């Protein structure tokens, strides 16, 4: 049973990190390079619910298996997972809906409302920082996990 839990734990962690890395460094930059700004934003907006869904699922799997494994929640593991999960859920459930609403308002205003644009840039900045936090703590958690592996 411990092997199964370890497998699911690692799977959740590497999928979580992989999705952040792939989206942040490959998907989003490529989309914004190929499409105009508005179309790229629409595509990214369509991806976000799935992106955050993967993050939520991986957070639950990673936390659940850490808690279910003897010693799996010890040391920095659980605090790292908690920080990653909090950032993922906040970005997906709070920041993303606010940003979508602002984009809608900006389109209704013809894209000329500077106050809305500034608020959107602020939310985008928070989203980027939260995503970076997930990545950094995830890499730390992966390192801690790798230190305990036996080959």
UniProtKB/TrEMBL annotation:
Alphabetized UniProt keyword annotations: Membrane, Transmembrane, Transmembrane helix
Domain TMEM205-like: 12-107
Entry keyword Signal: no
Transmembrane segments: 6-32, 53-72, 78-97, 128-149
GO CC aspect terms: membrane
Primary location: membrane
Highest rank taxon of the organism: Bacteria
UniProt key word Metal-binding: no
Signal peptide annotation: none
Compartments, as annotated in UniProt: Membrane
Protein name per Swiss-Prot or TrEMBL: TMEM205-like domain-containing protein
Organism: Nitrospina gracilis (strain 3/211)
């Amino acid at each position: 049973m411990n092997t199964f839990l370890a497998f699911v734990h690692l799977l959740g962690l590497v999928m979580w990190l992989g999705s952040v890395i792939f989206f942040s460094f490959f998907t989003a930059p490529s989309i914004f390079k190929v499409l105009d700004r508005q179309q790229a934003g629409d595509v990214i907006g369509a991806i976000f619910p799935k992106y955050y869904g993967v993050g939520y699922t991986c957070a639950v799997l990673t936390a659940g298996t850490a808690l279910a494994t003897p010693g799996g929640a010890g040391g920095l593991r659980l605090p790292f997972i908690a920080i990653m999960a909090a950032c993922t859920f906040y970005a997906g459930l709070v920041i993303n809906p606010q940003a979508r609403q602002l984009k809608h308002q900006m389109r209704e205003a013809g894209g000329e409302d500077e106050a809305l644009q500034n608020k959107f840039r602020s939310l985008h900045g928070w989203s980027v920082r939260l995503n970076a936090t997930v990545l950094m703590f995830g890499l730390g958690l992966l390192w801690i996990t790798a230190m305990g592996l036996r080959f």
